[in-house]
Amino acid sequence: MTIHRMLVPFDFSEPSSRALNYAKVMAERFDATVEILYVVRNPYLTDATGLPVPLPPRVLDNLIADAQSGLDKLLSSSDRERFKARTIVKVGDARSEIVAYAQAEQVDLIVMGTHGRGGMAHLMLGSVAERIVRSAPCPVLTVR
Predict the structure, then answer these.
(1) At residue 23, what are phi and psi to the nearest 5 degrees?
(2) Is the Cβ–Cβ distance between 95 and 135 less than 8 Å?
(3) d(CA 98, CA 22)
(4) pTM of the model
(5) Distance from CA of residue 139 to its chain's centroid?
(6) Does residue 119 lie within any of the structural domains?
(7) Which residue in 37, 40, 88, 92 is deepest, having the highest Cβ count within 10 Å?
(8) What Å distances lie between residue 72 and 56, 77, 78, 133, CA to CA?
(9) Domain range for residue 85?
(10) Edge-to-edge order in the sheet of strand 33-40
């Protein structure tokens, strides 16, 4: 298997940073591109009746701009050039957006951090990484 394109889902956590470091090492060895994806959860407010109402567009725009600004600071300009790196911000459910991006862009490998929760925390919160491993169109390397 040849790796040309790697996707690094990023959530600004320490495990995500470790996954990005792994991806950079692998990208050098395989001469692959690195694409870093952050998914802004589509947050909703509730109205007086308790029904979900989307945030005003300007608030969502600010969340997207803040995410893009944070992603832009992850790599130096030389790293961007060396890894032909791209940063992408999507809005929606993290698992769905990551899998859809990997499929649409024909990503060869997803490299992602995992928080390594076990026991009750895992049962209550689930695992985005586990769900992606189960549904991704390509291999997934998880980094703790």
Answers:
(1) -60, -40
(2) yes
(3) 18
(4) 0.86
(5) 15
(6) no
(7) 37
(8) 25, 10, 13, 27
(9) 35-109
(10) 86-91, 33-40, 5-9, 109-113, 140-143
Q: Is residue 144 part of a domain?
A: no
The answer to whether residue 96 sits within a structural domain is yes
| Confidence at residue 46, expressed as pLDDT on a 0 to 100 scale | 67
Give the tens place of pLDDT for each residue, 4-21: 999 999 999 999 999 999
Using the structure block, give the residue that is written with the tokens 């407010």.
Answer: 45
Is residue 27 in a domain? no
pLDDT tens, position by position, 31-60: 999 999 999 987 776 667 877 777 788 888
More confident residue, 53 or 107: 107
3-state DSSP assignment of residue 88: strand
DSSP string, 4-63: -EEEEE--SSHHHHHHHHHHHHHHHHHT-EEEEEEEE---EEE-TTS-EEEPPHHHHHHH
What's the domain count of the chain?
Answer: 1
The closest of 88, 137, 144, 90 to 115, measured between CA atoms, is 144
Residue 108 to residues 32, 65, 86, 95, 99, Cα–Cα distance (Å): 9, 28, 15, 17, 12
